[in-house]
Amino acid sequence: MTQVSSSNIDSIGYNEQEQGVYVRFLNGSLYVYKGVPEHEFQNLMEAPSHGSYLNRNFKNVYPYERIE
Q1: Three-point CA angle 19, 23, 25, nearest 5°
Q2: pTM of whole model > 0.90?
Q3: What is the C-alpha to C-alpha distance for residues 68 and 65, in angstroms, rounded to an integer?
Q4: Cβ atoms 30, 22 nearer than 8 A
Q5: Beta bridge partners of 3
Q6: Tens of pLDDT, residue by residue, the chain (68 residues)
């Protein structure tokens, strides 16, 4: 997990084998977005606003679940 500067997100990580993007929010909850290609994870990490990018490009595209 890599800490990011965001008003909503604490840290983001990626598991290549399962193509899972892990997002820990500042409220402590942890979500995994499934089936995410590595280039999409890189785009998220390089976005000027991680939260906005997540909302626009992940929320209605990749299945996700809260795991913590």
Answers
A1: 170
A2: yes
A3: 9
A4: yes
A5: 11
A6: 999 999 999 999 999 999 999 999 999 999 999 999 999 999 999 999 999 999 999 999 999 999 99
